Amino acid sequence: MDIDRSVKIGVLSSLVAAVIFLYLLDPLLTILGRIFLTLTGIASKQYLDRLYSEIATGMPDFGFYAVGTGMLILLFMIVALAVASRVASTNTSVGPPHARGSKADVLLVAFLFFLFIVFLADGWVRLRTVSTFQQHITVLAPAISDLEVKQLQADFASMKGKGDYDRLQMRIRNLARSSGIALPENKLYPGF
């Protein structure tokens, strides 16, 4: 039985594509994936350290946070409505079904949504960190010396990153345990 020339070319090109993927693209994508994950881990650690360092500078302005959140919601809604109206106008015209919305529109809405989530999480972490620390110091203050309270507040004000916050929370928990005081739950890190 004679194999058609087009079948031979198809089989040969499939084998070449498989070899190229296995020996060239797969290792390249694996390396790029690991680099991306490493860079993302470094960036998130740097972000958290910066966040806790900024929290230590004092009471954040939560009025700005509320106004900023409102403006982000408004911007997100305007862009989403503009994209939706553009998609609706494209659907009524004659054209291919893939022209219902460009990839740039989808990427823009996804990016704005990502920024919105990051902004909300940033403010929430700031608020919870400051309020939980103040609540724990208030509950613990009658059982420890004024000097110890001042030392805890000074350590909070001089935080450089999340590691400093974690060590401070552990110290507060140990002081409460040794004084027989049950602290309210840390809403930022339940079970801490």
Model description:
There is one protein chain. By secondary structure, this protein is mainly α. It is 78% helix and 0% strand. The protein contains five helices and no strands. It has helices spanning 5-55, 62-92, 103-140, 146-157, 162-179. Helix 1 crosses helix 5 (162-179), helix 2 runs antiparallel to helix 3 (103-140) and helix 3 (103-140) packs parallel to helix 5 (162-179). The mean pLDDT is 80.
The gist of it:
The chain has 192 residues and is mainly α. The chain has helices at residues 5-55, 62-92, 103-140, 146-157, 162-179. Helix 1 (5-55) crosses helix 5, helix 2 runs antiparallel to helix 3 (103-140) and helix 3 (103-140) runs parallel beside helix 5.
Q: What general outline do the C-alpha atoms trace?
A: elongated
What structural category arises from helix and sheet content? Answer: mainly alpha
Rounded radius of gyration (Å)? 28 Å
Strand content: under 5%
The helix/strand order is HHHHH
- Biggest β-sheet description: none
**Helix content bin:** over 70%
Can you tell me the residue ranges where pLDDT is under 50 for at least 5 consecutive residues? none
Mean pLDDT: 80
Helix count equals 5
Q: How many E-type strands?
A: 0
State the distance separating the first and last CA atoms.
Answer: 74 Å
Assembly state: single chain
